[in-house]
Amino acid sequence: QGQLVESGGGLVQPGGSLRLSCAASGFTLDRYAISWFRQAPGKEREGVSCIMRGDGETYYADSVKGRFTVSKDNTKNTVYLQMNSLKPEGPAVYYCEADMICGGVYYRGQGTQVTVSS
Predict the structure, then answer these.
(1) What single-letter DSSP state applies at residue 100?
(2) Is the sign of the CA dihedral 98, 100, 101, 103 positive or negative?
(3) Is 36 exposed, middle or buried (0-12, 13-18, 19+ CB in 10 A)?
(4) Residue 97, Cβ neighbours under 10 Å: how many?
(5) Which is it for the CA torsion 18, 65, 78, 103, positive or negative?
(6) Is there a smaller number of Cβ atoms within 10 Å at the N or the C end of the chain?
């Protein structure tokens, strides 16, 4: 059975950077579109980014465009979300999800928490 495991979250100061990882096991990640979502307590889930299967075309929410970069390493069966120029926000859990299309949830990881605060 397939599984996704996120890592790389933590506490970072405004303006800082973090790189999140989404490692897949039990299936070939490149055969799926991988989406990143985030959810803060009491708020709606927000789509952040997506990288398509195969050609790796990428998509970003307007709120992160120019600051976040999604990429994949097929040799490691892992997708990354590089987050730069982070803005102050309370804790949010970032999830990666895999499906045939962006936004689908055939597989979902357990999430990794990110807090941007001074």
Answers:
(1) S
(2) negative
(3) buried
(4) 22
(5) positive
(6) N
